[in-house]
Amino acid sequence: MKVLISGASVAGPALAYWLHRHGFEVTVVERAPALRDSGYAVDFRGAAFDVLDGMGILEEVRGHETMMRGTDLVDDEGHKIGELPAEAFAGDLEVPKRELTAILHRLTAGRVRYVFGDSISRIAQDDSGARVEFERGEPGVFDLVVGADGVYSTVRRLAFGPHERFVRHLGMSGVGFTTANHLALDHRGVLQSAQGRAVYLFSAADADRMTVSMSFGTDSAELDLMERDRQEEIVRERMAGAGWVVPRLVEDMASASDFLFSSACQVEADRWSQGRVVLVGDAGYCAAPTSGMGTWQALIGAHTLARHLAASAGDHAAAFLAYEEELRPYVVENQKHGREAVAMFGG
């Protein structure tokens, strides 16, 4: 059975690994020209460890642990007023996302076909298969198409409908990037939250650099789709008047090569499959970054989907149904946590 997966972050390569292991022929297409080398740290809990162990990469992933020691809570002037334990953000194991992405790609690159710098433009399906057209490459016919391409999934838009039907904005947006470690943070974070906005800073893997997250209340997730100049303008407007190190961070933002603007969103879909097309990870059931569960939810989702496809004897409809019935209660609980956590970050 030939499977096309859109997205080469976490859910896509993880699913590709398990499908190949079960004898499927897999192609992964990724819009970015190369493997993405950005993103916040990601953490793991519970059943995600079983998935990593089953892939044979648990110890390698552990080797990149950030070793965070907690987060200081500070007031408007940067004075410490409290503390959160490392587990509040880091889970049972935390690693830089770029390291996890690199490990998953290395694990699968010799087993499945990767196509970078391209994206799906059309999907037409019938009883014989799904004919897929691409923005650059030649069209192809696949038995199944998987959307593992994030909150603003191209596959979901083409097969299920426009983004506004599925993307639920949680009232918060923000910017992330790395800059010089002005505060000399050492495997530690700092969180300032007041007046509908929050600043979270931490340094772990590289002592000379720190990761910056500045978030604030917003009315729409459409900001995510705007040009960078407009996004920077919004950040400056929303962070105006803030003290402590915020003015310097706003200045650093303009020259950041890893600038990322995103909103706290959840994806809510009545069903995760449509014919021969199925969604996995954030494309189908994003729990919001504030949940701290997106990565391990993607890993568990990929493993669950692959397991049911392998056991279905070619009946993809039955496999999709079993996948959703097993995973949806878990997703519902994670999305609840995501909504509850927004208040901490300024939403």
UniProtKB/TrEMBL annotation:
Keywords: Monooxygenase, Oxidoreductase
Pfam families in the cross-refs: FAD_binding_3 (PF01494)
Domain FAD-binding residue range list: 2-330
GO molecular function terms listed in the Swiss-Prot or TrEMBL record: FAD binding; monooxygenase activity
Keyword Oxidoreductase carried by entry: yes
Oxidoreductase is among the record's keywords: yes
The protein, known as: FAD-dependent monooxygenase
Protein species of origin: Nonomuraea montanisoli
Source organism phylogeny: Bacteria, Bacillati, Actinomycetota, Actinomycetes, Streptosporangiales
